[in-house]
Every structure is written in structure tokens, then in C-alpha cells.
Amino acid sequence: MTLPSGCPSTIDLNADVGESFGRWELGDDAALLPHLTSANVACGFHAGDPLTLRRTCDRAVAHGVVIGAQVGYRDLAGFGRRFIDVAPDELEADVLYQLSALSGIAAAAGGAVAYLKPHGALYHAVSSQEAQADAVIAAVVAFGGLPVLGLAGSPFLSRVAAAGLPTVGEGFADRAYLPDGGLVPRSEPGAVLVDSSAVAAQAVRLAQSGDVQSLCIHGDSPGAAASAAAVRAALSDAGIAVKAFVGPSS
To answer: The pTM is what?
Structure first.
């Protein structure tokens, strides 16, 4: 098949995983991970307990899935989806702590943290609040530098690039978009796409736009594994291979 002009021949498929906590199970990571090329693993602040993170990293390594640190606010009760006006130096330390914790667990599983992605409210805050964006970036630099995954075309990724870090533009296969390119707030009807055919169709549109390097499916969305399988099949039909944007996490 001849790809449209500007359409990449490969694209990454990521998802948020490792978000269960204790007896509270969220998502079906075991079913979802085999369909992914990159896994945004929670780091214990917004979700995830140590055993969950260890098991998630073990599974990611077993499936050859690249491990990324999904960092968020210290907000287990709100699942990291509530904005918290954290002082920049505290936020930098919090992000560095999360990176370091997941790095140790990933290493024990035979892998390594290969990139960072902010989660939830922090994901949105870094595109509008420069102090919080710079705190996250400073933590990545202090950690030794990693690619940073963020909303394609966002001011945050521009700041990441200005700091000399690799950027990865992300599109959401299972989220509705606003006309300005932002995401429809989760509080509004239809913000999350749950029909796997609709998710797959949006994934192909985003991939063919040439504006994104990675597609996200939320692991806590209903039928996430089925949607991921549908996305991979649709991308294959469109002549687009699914491949991680960085090398294996080892």
C-alpha cells in the first residue's frame, strides 16, 4: 500500500499500566501489554504499589515492551487527575523520586526506564504552567536525561526540546479532541471513546497526520486490550507498522 504524503511508516503504541493498588485492580495489564510497544508504568504517587510495579515491569520485559515512567502528583485518592499547586523544587524532587523508584524496579526485572510521561493533571499542567513544566524537565535532566512523551504540538514539548531532551509527540486513540487540538475534559460526555472500531479509526487518522510519533490507549478504559488489538490491525491494514520510538528497555 502507498502511504499518504507525510505519513510515517511506523508508529509507537503506548498505554498507561501498573495502576492497580493493593486489592483495588484497575485495567487488565496482562491482556493489554502484548499489544503494546511502550508501557507508561505508574510510579506509586498517583497509582501503583511496589508489587504491582514489579509484576508490570516483569511482564513488560517478557513481552519486549519498552518501559516508561508515568509520573504524577502525590494523589492516590484522586488518581492524579486533580491539579495540585506544588512548589517547583518539591515537584522536581517528587518526579526524581518516582523516576528513581521505577528505575530500580525495572532493573530488577531486567529492564530500564527509557522515557518519561506525565500523568493526568500534571500532563495538562505542564502545557500551561511554565514553572511546573520546568520542574519536570529539571528532574529528567537530574536523572541523566530521557526522551519525554507529551501532547503533540504542546508548549511543554517545546520547552523539553529547548532543554536539549528528545521529545515524542503523542496522540490519543481513545480520547475526543477539541477544535484547538486539546483533549475534551473527562467531565464532559463523550470524552473517552469506548467503541474499539472508533478508537482504531481515530488511531489511523492520527498516525496518517504525520504529527504524532506515539499513540496512547488508556489502560483503565473499558475494553482497552480489545481496542489495542483493533488499533494494531487497523494500522497494519493502513500500511503502518507498530514499533517503539526507543530501543528495548535493557
So the answer is: 0.91
